């Protein structure tokens, strides 16, 4: 029996390399011995654990192989849409597949879904068809599982990784990299590294010396789409253009996300910490925020500010409700407050978010406000949205070809984001209190097929910092996401012409 178990393990370990052939980006079989050892030891752990639980030899070998194939298929779906393979932190978002299926399931192709269904059916049939062992070598299997796990940990620690999933996968193979990220990333050191980076970040000390109200808006999938082609209507972002001309500072924003993974850009802006300092936490930083830490919100709180988040979606998405408390957010207004708000497509409209921001500013209070708002209207999947014949003419001159359908849906929402800006800036300009508005896009939209057809693939979003007080020339300065918060802080103190009175201010705790 021992020989049979060993042969099945060897077969499973060898056959588990076959799914690597479908994993994108492709990896050469010319890899380091460490990556091969990590792949084989991980398969051995899975096989031994399944055999301990089920007692079914061939079934355990088949499931070990099928698991690699499943991960590779899901990874390919993610890579096709977001240019990034499946990484270990995506496992922690698995429950969101069921609670928010519209955000995930449409990105799985019919072939991928069919393969998953067939694979599950085969697993069930295999489990039922195979007779379990009458006597399981429990001790030997437990020893194999523990020894293999120890080898996997050693190999994962020794594997030379860049933490760029695409580059690492090309060099070491999909499954070895996935396992290495998982074993290395789940160590307590990951959370410690994040906390240490925040403790040394730009908001760990200091406090505001003045007290304007401050609004920070993260606009879903916003970027200046006119860069894609001259055929896109220039007037689609007229309010955005006006805001940039009147701004203190504006420019392109380099963000650590493409097509999705909003929380990476969000975390960089709120903490001022570069993803290189986060180690494995860079992929899903909120999962590793486990105690009170420094952030842009905590910096404002030291100046006596009330800190507020407005987001027209569920507070528990990405674990924001838990993480934001550690980031020193006093209050979170989420989808429950937008039950009767108008929609634009499947999500709450940007204009409704603007109305909520203005309402929050108008609440009676005796302290300044820092309001962080994330919009939702332009969230995909855009290919599920309805586009009428001829609708594209209002936004571009590319015609009604079906390949521009998703672009039309995107530009429709982009125009709504621009209208939101016009409404909000008009309201802020009329306010008696000094107010600062910082606006930026979290990432470009997931429209890879549109970008290919237009021959241009964007990677950066845009930002501006605007004030309703003081005089300053608009400075063009391109930034990285982690530099935006410090730039916002620097913009609070204007150079005011002699004799020009300040607008109404709240007192600060520093005075």
CATH architecture verdict of the largest domain? 3-Layer(aba) Sandwich
What series of H and E elements makes up the topology?
A: HHHHHHHHHEHEHHEHEEEHEHEHEEEH
As for the CATH topology of the largest domain, it is: Alkaline Phosphatase, subunit A
The description of the largest β-sheet is: 9 strands, mixed
Number of helices: 17
Distance between the termini: 80 Å
Q: Classify the beta-strand content into a percent band.
A: 5-15%
Outline the low-pLDDT stretches: none
Question: What is the domain total for the residues?
Answer: 2
The structural class is alpha/beta
Helix content: 40-55%
The overall pLDDT, averaged over residues, is: 93
Described by the principal axes of the CA atoms, the overall outline is globular
Count of β-strands: 11
Layout of helices and strands:
Elements: H1 2-15, H2 33-54, H3 57-82, H4 96-99, H5 110-129, H6 138-158, H7 165-172, H8 174-185, H9 188-199, E1 213-219, H10 238-246, E2 249-254, H11 262-271, H12 296-301, E3 306-310, H13 320-326, E4 331-333, E5 343-344, E6 347-348, H14 350-361, E7 369-374, H15 405-429, E8 435-441, H16 448-454, E9 461-467, E10 475-476, E11 479-480, H17 481-490
Helix pairs in contact: 1-2, 1-3, 2-3, 2-6, 2-8, 3-5, 6-8, 7-8, 10-15, 11-17, 14-15
Transmembrane segments: 33-54, 61-83, 103-129, 141-161
Subcellular location: Cell membrane
Organism: Paraburkholderia bryophila
């Amino acid at each position: 029996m021992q020989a049979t178990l060993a042969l099945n393990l060897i077969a499973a370990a060898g056959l588990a390399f076959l799914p690597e052939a479908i994993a994108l980006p492709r990896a050469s079989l010319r890899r380091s011995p460490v990556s091969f050892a990590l792949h084989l030891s991980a398969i051995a752990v899975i096989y031994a654990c399944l055999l301990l639980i089920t007692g079914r030899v061939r079934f355990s070998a088949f499931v070990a192989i099928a698991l690699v194939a499943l991960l590779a298929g899901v990874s390919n779906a993610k890579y096709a849409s977001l240019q990034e393979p499946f990484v270990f932190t995506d496992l922690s978002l698995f429950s969101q597949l069921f609670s928010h299926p519209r955000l995930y399931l449409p990105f799985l192709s019919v072939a991928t879904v069919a393969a998953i269904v067939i694979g599950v059916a085969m697993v069930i049939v295999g489990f039922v068809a195979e007779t379990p062992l009458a006597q399981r070598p429990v001790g030997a299997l437990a020893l194999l599982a523990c020894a293999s796990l120890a080898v996997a940990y050693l190999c994962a620690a020794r594997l030379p990784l860049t933490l760029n999933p695409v580059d690492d996968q090309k060099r070491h193979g999909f499954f070895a990299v996935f396992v290495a990220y998982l074993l290395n990333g789940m160590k307590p050191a990951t959370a410690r590294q994040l906390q240490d980076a925040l403790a040394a970040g730009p908001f760990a000390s200091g406090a505001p010396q003045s007290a304007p109200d401050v609004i920070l808006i993260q606009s879903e999938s916003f970027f200046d789409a006119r860069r894609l082609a001259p055929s896109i209507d220039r007037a689609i972002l007229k309010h955005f253009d006006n805001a940039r001309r009147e701004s203190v500072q504006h420019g392109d924003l380099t963000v650590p996300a493409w097509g999705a993974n909003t929380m990476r850009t969000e975390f960089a802006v709120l903490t001022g910490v570069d993803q290189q300092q986060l180690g494995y936490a860079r992929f899903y930083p909120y999962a590793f925020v486990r105690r009170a830490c420094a952030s842009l919100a905590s910096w404002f709180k030291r100046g006596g500010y009330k800190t507020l988040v407005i987001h027209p979606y569920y507070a528990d998405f990405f674990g924001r409700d838990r993480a934001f408390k550690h980031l020193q957010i006093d209050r979170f207004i989420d989808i429950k407050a937008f039950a009767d708000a108008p929609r634009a497509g499947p999500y709450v409209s940007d204009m409704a978010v603007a109305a909520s921001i203005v309402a929050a500013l108008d609440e009676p209070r005796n302290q300044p406000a820092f309001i962080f708002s994330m919009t939702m209207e332009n969230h995909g999947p855009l290919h599920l949205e309805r586009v009428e014949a001829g609708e594209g003419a209002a936004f571009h001159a590319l015609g009604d070809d079906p390949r521009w359908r998703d672009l039309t849906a995107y530009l429709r929402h982009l125009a709504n984001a621009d209208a939101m800006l016009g409404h909000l800036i008009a309201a802020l300009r009329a306010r008696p209190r000094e107010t600062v508005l910082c606006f930026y896009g979290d990432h470009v939209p997931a429209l890879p097929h549109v970008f290919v057809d237009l021959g241009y693939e964007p990677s950066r979003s845009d930002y501006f910092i605007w004030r309703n007080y003081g005089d300053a020339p608009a400075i063009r300065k391109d930034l990285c996401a982690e530099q935006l918060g410090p730039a916002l802080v620097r913009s609070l103190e204007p150079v005011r012409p002699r004799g020009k009175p300040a607008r109404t201010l709240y007192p600060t705790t520093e005075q």
